[in-house]
Amino acid sequence: MSFDADVIVVGGGLAGLSASLTAVREGLSVLVLERGEFSGAKNVSGGRMYVHALRQLVDISEAPLERPITKETYLIKCSNRTISFSFSDPESRNSYSVLRAKFDPWLAKKAEEEGVIISYNTLVLGAEREDGGMTVRTNRGDLRAPLVIEADGVTAGISRSLGLRKLEPHSLMLGVKEVVKLEGPPEEGEARVLVGFVGELLGGAFMYTNEDTLSLGATVKINSLQEGNKMARDLVEEIRESLGVTGEVLEYSAHLIPYYGYDKLPPLHAPNLLVTGDAAGLLINDGFVIRGMDLAIGSGMIAGKAAKRILSEGKPQDTSVYERMLRESFVLKDMYTARRAFTLMNEERLFRRYPELLCDVLARMFKVEGERKRLLEVVQEEASKRGLTLTKLVRDLVKVM
Ligand SMILES: Cc1cc2nc3c(=O)[nH]c(=O)nc-3n(C[C@H](O)[C@H](O)[C@H](O)COP(=O)(O)OP(=O)(O)OC[C@H]3O[C@@H](n4cnc5c(N)ncnc54)[C@H](O)[C@@H]3O)c2cc1C
């Protein structure tokens, strides 16, 4: 049976474009199938990209990045006060704010210039293994290749159609985001981690400054959203109001986020199939920092290289080299380092009781009203008011660290 390309890439987001660009540079013929009208039309991201992986793929001085993040702010909100601390590093160039509606079309154009064929408005409906290759079913007909790179994001339609996994709420978070117009451009690129802004929900909130807009939003566990009986739209509005942001809302979006963690990752490959980015559950989110974009780019590039090795051996059924390459790279190494963070997200203390505890301890330490207690005593008293012991506190601290 004949093939339409060496590799079919399903999904033209960051993982798909990185995979296709790498595979084409390796001398393979590559066809990308993207359901959107253009790359970036369906992609949502809060927008802080750690650019170490991107630097290996393209010259980032040409990329439409918004601002280098040179200021980090932690803002902790308690019932009646807030604590904030910031640090600036004007020289820092390790992460940038990005708007995917600008960035993805740029990367897609680059891929096309280097020989990748992208078919837009092409919805992939599923895939089947046949005669030593893979048949991909789309709304515009069937296509065939010896190897498929799945880069269709969190819902992983290809893996599901092959019976490799199911979509389950406990492995998902919801991300909601607004882009708000700014009156004047911000002084510098700032990332704010917002703690205590999602009320009783398990998750965190964020704000990033772009060229002349702000991205703000939250990521929360789906089951806590159901239990908290809250609408995602109200959540992002509440965050905007509590930050005192008044500019015009230009864009609102909501998107699922994978939440597997290293120990529960879905299959990363199968015969004739390599799974990348969100589709492979490659995302780190500890409620404070979210990293999916660099893992999508990194896993995409590795898939492109692995595709060449697999096809050169003439055995597209044997795809295990891809997982070995991922294990040797930052992708699975960082997922492993962050594995405990995934258990923390289920600890309601971390999100509900600790911000209040921290605020009350600090408020007491800055007050002098006669006899003054030592820090340890104050911590002990405030912890026991919340039914926590010092031992529990120390254990949680060790886990976070
Ligand atoms: C609110 C929010 C905030 C985030 N903030 C950050 C952040 O600050 N930093 C960070 O690093 N990460 C962040 N992430 C995560 C990051 O956006 C993802 O990890 C990253 O986009 C994954 O890239 P991907 O290419 O794997 O998937 P996607 O970007 O989802 O791309 C998948 C592509 O496949 C296409 N597709 C899907 N199904 C089909 C189909 N059936 N047929 C054809 N095409 C299909 C889609 O249209 C899309 O173009 C955030 C996510 C959300 C939701």
Note down, in words, how this protein is organized.
- This protein has 13 helices and 20 strands.
- It is an alpha/beta fold and 401 residues long.
- The protein folds into 3 domains: 7-65 and 97-166 and 263-338, FAD/NAD(P)-binding domain, CATH 3.50.50; 170-258, 2-Layer Sandwich (D-Amino Acid Oxidase, Chain A, domain 2), CATH 3.30.9; 343-400, no CATH class.
- The strands form 5 sheets. A 7-stranded mixed beta sheet has the order 5-4-13-14-15-12-16. The chain has a 6-stranded mixed beta sheet with strand order 7-2-1-11-18-17, covered by helices on one side. The chain has a 3-stranded antiparallel beta sheet with strand order 8-9-10.
- The longest helix is centred in the last third of the chain and has 21 residues, at 293-313.
- The radius of gyration is 23 Å and the shape is elongated.
- The termini are far apart.
- The structure holds flavin-adenine dinucleotide.
- Residues 10-16, 33-36, 39, 42-49, 123-124, 151-153, 157, 175, 177, 217, 219, 255, 257, 277-279, 283, 290-294, 296 line the site of flavin-adenine dinucleotide.
- Flavin-adenine dinucleotide is lined by residues 10-16, 33-36, 39, 42-49, 123-124, 151-153, 157, 175, 177, 217, 219, 255, 257, 277-279, 283, 290-294, 296.
